[in-house]
Design brief:
By secondary structure, this protein is an alpha+beta fold. The protein has six helices and ten strands, in the order H-H-H-E-E-E-H-E-H-E-E-E-H-E-E-E.
Length: 237
């Protein structure tokens, strides 16, 4: 097995101290020169380690007389597989949640969406672009596609739906099944602008499918800031 680069090992060690609460939110990390002596590496190696933690949203750097490198408060834990929607989970953490509809149109969808729905590539699908905010800060960017014929039922955001949720649709309560695929990614220029991200900042990308019975009714691509939430996946064995 290849040995980890020194800056990655240092970042792992500092991250472990933060996650174990050995270093609390608001605590100041040792100065770079002390970390250099502590780990026996070059100053540039220490800076690379701190850059990595800053990209992850774990630490923040402040300038000035009272400046330095500080531990950030860890973002809330959001249960991707929970029975409470993402929106409701943010609210439960005491955050003020709001959404902005950027665009809504009927247009041909990308091939991955067309294939998932099994529709003709020329079909026009209801397509919505939204940005979701917590305490006024952008946390999720979302694009949703709805199967033709289901627009009146599923025109809202996919983050409002929870696992196993039943919805009252004209006296009928269809059982909804949700499938999520989570993976790290680099945002597009448009996503980076929507989420106010610096260049080279990674994101969590979630491909979400909502099924009514065995019928796929909504396909969504969700991009989440890594410093907005700790995403947890729980499976009952």
């Amino acid at each position: 097995m290849a040995k980890k680069p020194a800056y990655v090992a240092i970042a792992d060690a500092l991250r472990s101290q933060i996650e174990s609460r050995e270093l609390e939110p608001g605590d100041k990390l040792p100065p770079e020169r002390e970390l250099v002596d502590m780990y026996g590496v070059a100053r540039m190696t220490v800076r690379h380690a701190l850059d990595l933690l800053q990209l992850e949203g774990i630490i923040e750097r402040k300038r000035g007389r009272t400046g330095g490198t500080f531990v950030r408060a860890l973002p809330p834990i959001i249960d991707l597989t929970g029975k409470v929607s993402l929106t409701e989970q943010f609210i439960a953490h005491g955050l003020d949640v709001s959404s902005e509809l950027i665009s809504e149109t009927a247009a041909p969808a990308p091939q991955i969406v067309v294939s998932a729905f099994g529709v003709d590539s020329r079909d026009k699908l209801l397509t919505s672009e939204l940005v979701h905010f917590a305490n006024g800060n952008p946390v999720f960017a979302e694009t949703t596609y709805v199967r033709p014929g289901y627009e009146s039922k599923y025109s809202r955001s996919s983050v409002d739906y929870a696992r196993g949720q039943r919805t009252d649709l004209g006296g009928v309560t269809p059982h909804l099944r949700r499938e999520d695929i989570l993976f790290p990614a680099n945002p597009t220029d448009k996503e980076r602008e929507s989420l106010s991200l610096a260049a080279n900042t990674p994101v969590h990308r979630i491909t979400r499918k909502l099924f009514e019975g065995d019928t796929l009714v909504m396909f969504a691509s969700i991009v989440a800031r890594t410093d907005a939430a700790q995403i947890r996946i729980v499976e009952e064995l």
